[in-house]
Design a protein that fits this description.
The structure is a single chain. By secondary structure, the protein is an alpha/beta fold. The protein is built from 14 helices and 17 strands. The strands form four sheets. The chain has a six-stranded mixed beta sheet, with helices on both faces. Helix 3 (about 115-125) crosses helix 4 (about 130-140) and helix 13 (about 345-355) packs across helix 14 (about 375-419). The structure holds adenosine-5'-diphosphate.
């Protein structure tokens, strides 16, 4: 039976089931009492391991399409295949093992602890207790939450971002090959949303699930999607392509309207910090002696160090001039680090962080917030110039092609006139 990948989770070595292909065939939903279909005859193939975004205006049928994949909404007609299996008629409980589901405001059960919430589907599936327990710890670690600290907490004791992380951990707990996400980051503040998006990208690098993600935010779509399905009413597909292709060649006015202004700037969302050149920077521990830090700054090799807290997280930028104010302790000296980015943050996130930080650079951190390196303004600007230059060359080429075509068309007419 092809249905194996959803049941092999919980191994000590970590999650192993990577994604499965999804095929939607003539998928249609007509809600009782509604005159027309909410989703009309959708055909789509999502490759194994791909992260596909459904984006489109409110009411166009994104959620309905998504929820038909795990049959939270039963299709009126059409078929759904996951891997090689037609799942249109299988037992929904069996389907839940193949398809994880994460939604806005996390959807956690408030009367259950974090651990109980995450254990839900493995328990339903009948996993042995020890396997469930170790899986819960593993999942918390995977989404960047300390198992010892968060295991026994209730959802109300978590921030919005932490709840969302637990929601993702729960969706992944039974190691499903497919993950559906319905506006999962829609209800959190913009900074938390950025971090959660980065986390999802990191997770996907590790897990290679097949992910369908619904959003109405085109910037989010560009940042996250391997491919984006731009949907119009009734989930009709206006364009289904890579973010690059949609930004540079929108299929029609509807897609252009959705892309909005500033396509060149939106391309900043396509480049990751990991691709722009992270460099090392002199660091010192906050508990290091003032003498050794002074020595480091006076040695001539640098006039600034990044102070790290005991967990090696960026804490303060300290310049040589700040030492005068230190007076035996570092408590008052230096400039606190306001913002950091991860390796999966976009060029745009990094630029924003650098522009709002007087240091002219931003520290790059790992999954637990630990220091990895820095990216500076110069590096970012040279990447922006390269992007804009590539855009300019594209535009010139496009104009030349149009000129060639119009010359080709006008030539015979002129000849006709001359004759
Ligand atoms: P989106 O996710 O793109 O905002 P939905 O899939 O939620 O769109 O809705 C698509 C259309 O179906 C809308 O016109 C909506 O009003 C209608 N609809 C959604 N859910 C129901 C329902 N349970 N009963 C009747 N109509 C619904």
């Amino acid at each position: 039976m092809p249905e194996t990948s959803g049941t092999n989770g919980g191994k000590a070595a970590g999650p192993t089931a990577s994604g499965a292909r999804i095929q939607l065939e003539n998928l249609t939903k007509i809600y009782p009492g509604n005159p027309g279909p909410a989703v009309d005859n959708v055909n789509m193939e999502i490759k194994a391991g791909e992260l596909v975004i459904f984006v489109g205006p409110s009411g166009c049928g994104k959620s309905t399409t998504l929820k038909m994949i795990n049959r939270l909404i039963e299709p009126t007609s059409g078929r759904i295949r996951i891997g090689d299996e037609d799942v249109t008629d299988i037992d929904p409980v069996k389907l839940r093992r193949k398809v994880g589901y994460a939604i806005q405001q996390s959807g956690l059960f408030p009367h259950m602890t974090v651990a109980q919430n995450i254990a839900l589907v493995p328990k339903m599936t009948g996993w042995p207790k020890a396997k469930i327990n170790s899986r819960v710890e593993e999942m918390l670690d995977l989404v960047g939450l300390d198992p010892a600290e968060f295991h026994g907490r209730y959802p109300r004791q978590l921030s919005g971002g932490q709840q969302q992380r637990v929601g993702v951990a729960r969706a992944l707990a039974a190691d499903p090959p497919v993950l559906l996400m319905d506006e999962p980051f829609g209800a959190v503040d913009p900074i938390t949303r950025d971090h959660l998006q980065d986390e999802l990208i990191r997770l996907q690098h590790e897990l290679h699930k097949t992910i369908c993600f619904v959003t109405h935010d085109f910037d989010e779509a560009i940042k996250l999607g391997d491919r984006i399905a731009v949907l119009r009413e009734h989930s009709h597909i206006a364009q289904f392509d890579t973010p690059e292709a949609i930004l540079t060649n929108p299929a029609d006015d509807f897609v252009s309207g959705f892309v909005g202004a500033g396509a060149a700037l939106k391309r900043l969302n396509l480049t990751r910090v990991r691709d722009v050149g992270i460099v090392d920077f002199p660091t010192a521990g906050i508990d290091d002696s003032l003498e050794s830090i002074t020595e480091l700054l006076r040695s001539g090799s640098t006039n600034e160090v990044l102070l790290l807290d005991p967990n090696r997280r960026p804490y303060k930028w300290l310049r040589r001039g700040d030492l005068a104010r230190a007076k035996g302790t570092l408590a008052q000296a230096g400039t606190p680090v306001h913002d950091t980015v991860t390796r999966d943050a976009t060029l745009r996130d990094a630029l924003e962080a650098v522009l709002t930080d007087s240091a002219g650079r931003v520290a790059v951190t790992g999954r637990r917030g630990e220091y990895i390196g820095v990216v500076d303004m110069e590096t970012l600007m040279s990447n922006v110039h390269q992007l804009l230059e590539a855009d300019r060359l594209d535009a010139v080429e496009h104009r030349n092609q149009l000129d060639e075509r119009s010359t080709g068309r006008t030539q015979p007419a002129q000849e006709g006139l001359d004759a």
